[in-house]
Amino acid sequence: MDHSKHSTLDPTELTESILKGAPIYGPDDEKIGTIAHVHGMGNDTGMVVDVGGFLGIGAKPVSLSADQVRMMRDEAGTVHGVTARTKDELKALPEHHD
Spans of biased composition, class Basic and acidic residues (predicted)? Predict the structure, then answer.
């Protein structure tokens, strides 16, 4: 996926209503997770990403901060994120508990 034509979200757009359900892609453009929920907003946003699993079953929730994920919109307006971390690196993070 060529992200060069995708627009980065403004910090005011980093909210639960915009980010929830957005896919997260790793450095090789493999889908590695989905945003399950969001804590805070703007530059202080914390995202809980479900990693692995199938159809939400067996996924591990991990926490990422806004500076670890570049959130953007593609040409069709679909929100997604890209991180430099791999699926294995995310799976190695501590499980997030609410």
Answer: 85-98
Q: What is the pLDDT of residue 81?
A: 96
Supply the range of the domain harboring residue 60.
3-91
pLDDT value for 58: 79
The CATH number covering residue 65 comes to 2.30.30.240
State how far the alpha carbon of 87 is from the alpha carbons of 14, 74, 75, in Å.
22, 22, 25
CB 15 within 8 A of CB 38: yes
CA neighbor of 45 nearest in space, from 16, 87, 77, 79? 16
The Cα-based distances of 70 to 10, 53, 55, 56, 97 in angstroms read 10, 23, 24, 23, 23
